[in-house]
């Protein structure tokens, strides 16, 4: 993609949907799922042990994301919970606004009620 075409896409509001980190996370999840399902199928690991590993890993990952985001934002923060609370519990997701990414879209509209 040339620089001028990138600029045109940027001006029209198109965004890259897939970042390298999202691809690596997806591959990690698929790999872990394959390994766990294969281990359970061959009975090389028990269901209870697999659940302990999964819960432990989930808590470790949550702890790491809270730690990193707390340092970056300088307040205790778990971003995924904040989004869940704001969008689902408070039902305020419309306040985020939308970007209609069609070539003729008017970008002055920030939120649709």
From TrEMBL:
InterPro entries: GPI_mannosylTrfase
Listed transmembrane segments: 20-38, 50-73
EC number: 2.4.1.-
Protein's name according to its UniProt entry: Mannosyltransferase
Family: Belongs to the glycosyltransferase 22 family.
Subcellular location(s) per record: Endoplasmic reticulum membrane
Membrane topology qualifier: Multi-pass membrane protein
């Amino acid at each position: 993609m040339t620089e001028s075409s990138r600029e045109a896409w940027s001006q029209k509001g198109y965004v890259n949907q897939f970042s390298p980190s999202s691809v690596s996370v997806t591959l990690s999840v698929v790999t872990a799922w394959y390994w766990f399902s294969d281990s359970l199928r061959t009975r090389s690991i028990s269901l209870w042990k697999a659940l302990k590993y999964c819960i432990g890993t989930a808590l470790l990952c949550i702890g790491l994301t809270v730690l990193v985001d707390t340092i970056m934002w300088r307040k205790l923060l778990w971003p995924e919970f904040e989004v869940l609370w704001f969008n689902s519990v408070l039902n305020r997701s419309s306040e985020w606004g939308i970007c209609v990414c069609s070539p003729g879209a008017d970008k002055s509209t920030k939120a649709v009620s």
